[in-house]
Each structure stands twice: as C-alpha cells, then as structure tokens.
Amino acid sequence: MHLTRFLMNTARQGARKLLASPQAMHAAVLSGFPRPEDHTRDDARTLWRVDQRRDRQVVLYIVSPTEPELTHLVEQAGWPRSSESWETRPYDRLLDSLEKGQRWAFRLTANPSRTGRKTENSPTTQRFGQVTATQQIEWLTSRAERHGFAIARQADGELNLVTYDRQVRRFTRNHGQRPVTLVTATYDGVLDIEDPALFRNVLTRGIGHARAYGCGLLTLAPAQPTS
C-alpha cells in the first residue's frame, strides 16, 4: 500500500474543475494507474480525499495498492515546475505497526447516510444523507466498533471528535443523467485501536459509502498527549 500527497494549484482552471466535480476527480485519480489491478484488489482499493489546510493549501491525499503516476495531474492541476508536486510513501510500515490500545489522531471525510423508505408505502429502499451534526457523529460512533476502533473521550467525558465542512454537494455523473446529491462531513478526532485487523481494513478499504467520490479515507497522525 502507498500514501500519496499531491499539492493542487487552485489558480489553474483544471484544478478548479476537478475540485468542483468528485466524478472528474475520481477519473483523474484512477488515470494514474495503468491497470485495474493497480488501483483495486480484494483486500484494498484506491481512496482519495481533498483537504483544505489552514495555510490555504489544497492537498489531495490518495491511498492505493500500488504507487500512482500523476504527471497528468501535475500538468492539469498542479505545479509543473515544483519538485514537490507530489510525494508517495510506503504505507505498509504504518499498517504493520498498528496494535491494540494505540491512540491516534485522525481525519476522515465521509458520507454519513442511512438506508430507508421515502414513505411508509414505498416499494424500495434508498439512501438518505444524515445532515445534522448530531446525526453525523452518531453515524461514525455507531460504526466504530465493527471497524476495530473507539472514539476517545476527553477529560470532561465528552467525545474527542468534531465535525466541520458539512456539505450537500450536487454534481452530474455523466452528461444527461440526473444529478448526484451527496452529503459529506469531515471529522477530526482521537481514536483508540481495539482490533488491529479490522482497523487495517478501514485504512485500506475505507469506511461508508461514496468512496469513489472522495469519502471514506481515514488518515492518522500522532495523538497529542493529554495534560
């Protein structure tokens, strides 16, 4: 597995086009892999997420089974003259080091949603986005155990978790088709690993729906010690 960090140049029209359409970004990411087996395996798939940093830099993160070749993205939406356009690092060392009881800070952009019927008499079920902050937090905490982790609590007993950049995005998948409506939220928090095998699966396969559209990629950082 590999983790890639790509710096977007938002002054370029190509970058703005990709950032406006998860469908276009998905296609651009997969174009970095010559064969299907390079971006999707039984035990892993390619995940991506766009982060807006505090310094106003926009960064595309990609986790993938093999190393991507992103020259086409540099030419379309990056910094062609920069030696830091993108950086790819092996991910397996981190994955192999995960153990029960470890505490990590994390970030996740997800599609919090539920399946149900639009009306009591509807013949089929459909997916509905969870739009309130309370619903979105409950969505993640209800899935944590099955994915091998628990959200840590602060000294006051509250969950060490915040949601932000909560959006309802609408975009077209293909010309002439009905628009896609996608509820997204970004989570920052601290977690404790409870089952390393299940948790590794989250890091390599994602969590929730809409993973092709920039949702589901959970990344880790060292947790700051509590005072």
From TrEMBL:
Highest taxon in the source lineage: Bacteria
InterPro entries xrefs: CRISPR-assoc_prot_Cse3 (IPR010179)
Pfam families, per the entry: CRISPR_assoc
SUPFAM superfamilies (UniProt xref): CRISPR-associated protein
Protein name, per record: Type I-E CRISPR-associated protein Cas6/Cse3/CasE
Taxonomic lineage: Bacteria, Bacillati, Actinomycetota, Actinomycetes, Micromonosporales
